[in-house]
Specification:
Blueprint: H1 5-13, E1 19-21, E2 24-26, E3 33-37, E4 44-49, H2 53-72, H3 75-91, H4 93-104, H5 108-129, E5 135-138, E6 145-152, E7 156-159, H6 167-179, E8 183-186, H7 193-204, E9 212-214, H8 220-229, E10 235-239, H9 242-254, E11 258-262, E12 267-271, H10 277-289, E13 299-305, H11 309-321, H12 341-356, E14 360-363, E15 378-381, E16 398-404, H13 407-415, E17 419-420, E18 422-426, H14 430-439, E19 444-447, E20 462-463, E21 466-467, H15 474-477, E22 480-487
Parallel strand pairs: 7-8, 7-10, 8-9, 10-11, 12-13, 12-18, 13-16, 15-16, 18-19
Antiparallel strand pairs: 1-2, 3-4, 5-6, 6-22, 11-21, 14-15, 17-20
Helix pairs in contact: 2-8, 3-5, 3-6, 3-7, 4-5, 4-7, 5-6, 10-11
This protein binds nicotinamide-adenine-dinucleotide.
Length: 493
């Protein structure tokens, strides 16, 4: 059922518009605000307080003041808060889904998928919170004892991107709460509303004041700058583009901060001639079109064995041609708009350059006229191996297909990128799966699977795609620090 304007307005009116500092929603210290737009219409849908450097400092003050008590709070209490938040988000799943569709553009069905995926981080880390094991052992010399315990890192700055407004926040807040860290969350300016509602739910679930502070605003660096320089901060966890990640790593060096960096990707999608072609096309649609291609895990380069390239490209283009672009709140919509006009121009520039270099637009290849920032789902055939579109994150609904002859060549092409986040491999040969997976330099490999993100799995990349992992057993370790206590020989005279 298509959503009514009244329902949209009621939901938007329920979202807090202030900065969350020390458990209270406040105006910005200078009274400043910024607007949030619906990318399907270009219209303003909300106006939020825009944090100043002073507000950012107040948020860190609150996080710092709450840290000692929060670290001593029993793990079971922290776990129960996460679990309650998980239940509350389940109850309000439709609100969260609609809010993401309104501020980010993804079709409602996809937004519901993100609610399910993003919320799992709260459940997963509520379970991890009480299983944070240390160890006790005797030294190899047989005399002294070694006690190892985990402690929370301390106040964290969490910076999230616009493309997955709920999941990117829960993937950081979940483990930070579980480990006993306090936080300043800085959501992306383009899609801050979901974080506002999420923070309200965390308070409702019983999170004490000051543990989670949320400061959105016009200027990212005005918010993050003073926090990064402050000696009370202990960690920065960032998800976003590689250039900003590099800058934050440099800034983090001054304060010797712990860092987690979830950065850009350039995922290869490798299809061997022995693959089940229909399953490969289905996987390609999921790996390319989730989030309109605006995902760090989005398949960015389709490397297809030359013997099947024509058939794969034809079937893939047919499936892309069946998609229905439209505002995400409409029932018929299966592809939303891109996030803004600049993003759409960037995508079109990459497509035009590839076509000039000899690629063929088998379908799509153009922006869609009218309201919003829509781009036609596009498959490019015969893309030359050195085309720019194969080296840059496309972040749009565009699939460039290029070919290879041998397994070695496929591995070489896959690794010919500065990025190393997600990769996809379609073959029915399990020995080949192991051979290729061992040789490709990517943090994640989807084997006959187009979607691999899961709260129970360690998400993250190598090379310029980042440092650290989110989710899985690894996720909580990013927010813990190890303390070793050396105990003198209890038998010594
Ligand atoms: P971005 O780097 O422009 O922004 C990310 C966040 O950083 C935003 O909150 C932004 O306000 C903030 N920011 C920007 N400049 C900053 C600065 N100088 N100091 C401090 N903060 C700053 O990225 P984006 O456009 O929001 O997101 C898209 C990028 O994120 C893509 O490269 C995508 O691959 C990446 N991404 C990675 C993952 C992952 O898990 N590896 C997940 C989602 C998105």
């Amino acid at each position: 059922m298509t959503i009514s304007p009244e329902r949209e307005a009621a939901l938007l009116a329920s979202v807090p518009t202030g900065l969350l500092i020390d458990g209270e929603w406040r105006d910005a210290s200078d009274g400043g605000t910024f607007d949030v737009h619906d990318p399907a219409t270009g219209k303003v849908i909300a106006t939020l307080a825009s944090a100043t450097s002073e507000d950012a400092k107040a948020a860190l003050d609150a996080a710092d003041a709450a840290q000692a008590d929060w670290a001593r709070t029993p793990a079971r209490v922290r776990s129960d808060i996460l679990r309650r938040a998980f239940e509350l988000i389940n109850e309000r799943a439709e609100d969260f889904a609609l809010l993401m569709t309104l501020e980010m553009g993804k079709p409602l069905a996809e937004a519901r998928g993100e609610v399910a995926y993003g919320n799992e981080f709260l459940r997963w880390f509520s379970e991890e919170a009480v299983r944070d094991y240390g160890r006790y052992l005797t030294t190899p010399e047989g005399k002294n004892k070694i006690l190892v315990q985990n402690k929370p890192v301390g106040p964290c700055l969490l910076i999230t991107p616009w493309n997955f407004p709920l999941a990117m926040a829960t993937r950081k807040v979940g483990p930070a709460v579980a480990a006993g860290c306090t936080m300043v969350l800085k959501p992306a300016k383009l899609t801050p509303l979901t974080s506002q509602l999420f923070a309200a739910v965390m308070l409702e679930a019983g999170l004490p004041a000051g543990v989670l502070n949320v400061v959105s605003g016009n200027s990212a660096s005005a918010i993050s700058g003073p926090i990064m320089k402050d000696r009370r901060l202990r960690k920065v966890s960032f998800t976003g583009s590689t250039p900003v990640g590099r800058q934050l790593l440099k800034d983090a060096a001054d304060n010797v901060l712990r860092t987690s960096m979830e950065l850009g990707g350039n995922a290869p999608f490798i299809v061997f001639e022995d693959a089940d072609l229909d399953k490969a096309v289905e996987g390609a649609m999921a790996a390319k079109m989730r989030n309109m291609g605006e995902a760090c895990t989005a398949a960015n380069r389709f490397l297809v064995q030359d013997t099947i390239a024509e058939e794969f490209t034809r079937k893939f283009a047919e499936a892309m041609g069946r998609l229905k672009p439209g505002r995400g709140t409409e029932d018929s919509s299966t592809v939303g708009p891109l996030i803004d006009g600049g993003a759409r121009d960037d995508v079109h520039q990459l497509v035009s350059a590839a076509v000039s270099a000899g690629a063929e637009a088998v379908c799509g290849g153009e922006p869609i006229d009218g309201d919003g920032y829509f781009y036609a789902p596009t498959v490019l055939g015969n893309v030359p191996n050195d085309a720019a579109i194969l080296n840059e994150e496309i972040f749009g609904p565009v699939a460039p297909v290029t070919t290879f002859e041998t397994e070695e060549q496929a591995i070489r092409l896959a690794n010919a990128s500065e990025y190393g986040l997600a990769s996809y491999l379609f073959t029915q040969d399990y020995a080949r799966m192991f051979r290729v997976a061992e040789q490709i330099e990517f943090g994640m490999v989807g084997f006959n699977a187009g979607v691999i993100s899961n709260a129970a799995a360690p998400f993250g990349g190598v090379k310029q795609s980042g440092l650290g992992r989110e989710g899985g057993a690894e996720g909580i370790a990013e927010y813990s620090t190890v303390q070793y206590i050396g105990i003198a020989d209890p038998y010594a005279e």
